[in-house]
Design goal:
This protein has about 130 residues and is mostly beta strands. The chain has two domains: about 80 residues, Beta Barrel (L,D-transpeptidase catalytic domain-like), CATH 2.40.440.10; about 35 residues, no CATH class. The protein contains one helix and ten strands, in the order E-E-E-E-E-E-E-E-E-H-E. The strands form three sheets. Strands 1-9-8-7-3 form a five-stranded mixed beta sheet, with no helix packed on it. Strands 5-4-6 form a three-stranded antiparallel beta sheet, with no helix packed on it.
Length: about 130
């Protein structure tokens, strides 16, 4: 929105039922264009480099000896809470699919990222 006028309309993917996107009033707290990875959700690889868990939670899942955890990429990161919720580029299957973040459609994410500033208000409605 730009004041009360609709500025852009595009598909997003929000949190699936086990990880709902929390409704409320937020603001953009931080912006990172590239290199941002999730500290919580990603993949676990064994010592040979084979992915053994493609939906890993670093707080619960065990990394085997010699293996590694790799956080999910979150390009065009726009943090809206210090609890790890934000908007970023990601797969948008037009249904709830994330771990709580708002995945933004790849064709518009650069435009959104370039227009949004730290402090921009964000409202998530149920």
């Amino acid at each position: 929105m730009n004041d009360t006028q609709l500025a852009m309309d595009y598909p997003v993917a929000t949190g699936r039922s086990a990880f709902p996107t929390p409704p409320g009033k937020y603001m953009v707290l931080e912006k990172i264009e590239s290199g941002k990875r999730s500290a919580t959700y990603g993949k676990i690889y064994d010592a040979e480099g084979e992915c053994i868990n493609a939906d890993a939670d670093s707080r619960k899942d065990i990394v085997p000896p010699g293996g590694k955890y790799v956080g999910a990429e979150m390009p065009y990161w726009m943090r809206i809470s210090w609890d790890g919720i934000g908007m970023h580029k990601g797969r948008v299957p037009r249904r709830p699919a994330s771990h709580g973040c708002i995945r933004t459609y790849y064709k518009v994410v650069y435009t959104v990222f370039s227009k949004v500033k730290v402090g921009t208000p964000v409202t998530i409605v149920p």
